[in-house]
Amino acid sequence: MAQVVQIASVDPPKLEKKPVKFSNLLLGAGLNMFEVTTLGQPLEVIKTSMAANRGDSFAGAMSRIWGRGGVLGYYQGLIPWAWIEASTKGAVLLFVASEAEYYAKSFGASDFVGGISGGMAGGVAQAYATMGFCTCMKTVEITKHKIAAKGVKPPGTFATFMDIYRKEGIRGINKGVNAVAIRQTTNWGSRFGLSRLAETGIRKVSGKEDGQKLGSFEKILASGLGGGLSAWNQPIEVIRVEMQSKTEDPNRPKKLTVGKTLKYIYQNNGIRGLYRGVTPRIGLGVWQTICMVALGDMAKEMVEKVTGETVTAKH
Predict the structure, then answer these.
(1) Which of 91, 289, 115 is nearest to 192 (CA)?
(2) Which of 315, 307, 314 lies closest to 22, judged by CA?
(3) 33-51 as b/e, with b when 16 or more CB fall inside 10 Å?
(4) Which of 85, 136, 145, 259 is the most exposed place for a label (fewest CB within 10 A)?
(5) Signed CA dihedral, 33, 44, 227, 106: sign only
(6) pLDDT score for 270
(7) CB contact set of 114 (below 8 Å; sequence gap of 6+)
């Protein structure tokens, strides 16, 4: 009599949504606040100044900024706009990326595709939730110095905000938000992909292809390469700055769209104009990486002590 062999069916691993913990949000906000308050905002100001004044060299931009208020000139727009952005964008990203990654995987996406999908969706959400009006107000603060140059005392931060809101409403304080959304979604997609590509190369060179952990320097190198190389989309950043800038030019179209702004910059400054400010932007990407990776472990321990939770966010 033939023996019947039963083969036990193996169920595929159950798809679970990653929880968004308070400890993760606190870690992200803390690291972002440290990054922007140290070298982050000065590099942002130099980048924005070069993108708005496309005839300036790196040294020329630094001289222009120094002339606006010495050391404090490099921190224009930090309080409250850069702080609001730094403390909230991480929370928005984690919430939305977690949801988007879950649904992408539920439709059969791989971990790699799910991760990119989550990051890109999170980047778009960041733009429309908090980064749109924050980047707009930061750019306004950095580029409104021409008023002071005419001998008129420029209005304060909140007076400027209310003036724009009264004249142009929500659309006015979110000017350039579509460009911010394009920048964020391409940033996250390319940072994720390029960092993984660099990590694969480092593993091959160092002989760690079997899944061994990378050292701190190797992590910084991989993420730094990903952050630096993702500056390929600098043209959309220059377009964003131009759309939000308070620099006056009678030849500039009145109602700027992404397409009209691209045409205006190209006609006046060519291809090189679209890449103004790329050097400080690469520096900003590297500094963000150092803060997130090198300081991440120390910050992680501190947050775990304060909250009593195990931090699961990757940094």
Answers:
(1) 115
(2) 307
(3) bebbeebbbbbbbbbbbbb
(4) 259
(5) positive
(6) 93
(7) 101, 104, 105
Angle at 193 between CA 189 and CA 196, to 5 degrees: 145
Query: Cα–Cα distance between 95 and 104 in angstroms, integer?
Result: 15
Q: What is the pLDDT of residues 296-312, one digit of tens each?
A: 667 777 777 777 777 66
For residue 152, pLDDT beyond 70: no
- Residue 247 CB neighbour total at 10 angstroms: 14
Whether 20 and 98 have beta carbons less than 8 Å apart is answered as: yes
C-alpha 252/C-alpha 268 separation (Å) is 10
Summarize pLDDT for 24-53 with one digit per residue, the tens: 778 778 888 999 999 999 999 999 999 988
- Written as one letter, the residue type at 183 is R
3-state SS string over the chain?
A: CCCCCCCCCCCCCCCCCCCCCHHHHHHHHHHHHHHHHHHHHHHHHHHHHHHHCCCCCHHHHHHHHHHCCHHHHHHCCHHHHHHHHHHHHHHHHHHHHHHHHHHHHHCCCCHHHHHHHHHHHHHHHHHHHHHHHHHHHHHHHHHCHHHHHCCCCCCCHHHHHHHHHHHHHHHHHCCCHHHHHHHHHHHHHHHHHHHHHHHHHHHHHHCCCCCCCCCHHHHHHHHHHHHHHHHHHHHHHHHHHHHHCCCCCCCCCCCCCHHHHHHHHHHHHHHHHHCCCHHHHHHHHHHHHHHHHHCHHHHHHHHHHHHCCCCCCCC
Q: Greater confidence, 158 or 10? A: 158
Output the pTM of the full model.
0.77
State the first-to-last Cα distance of the chain, in angstroms, to the nearest integer.
61
Query: Are 58 and 46 spatial neighbours (Cβ–Cβ below 8 Å)?
Result: yes
What is the 3-class SS of 224-282, one letter each residue?
Answer: HHHHHHHHHHHHHHHHHHHHHCCCCCCCCCCCCCHHHHHHHHHHHHHHHHHCCCHHHHH
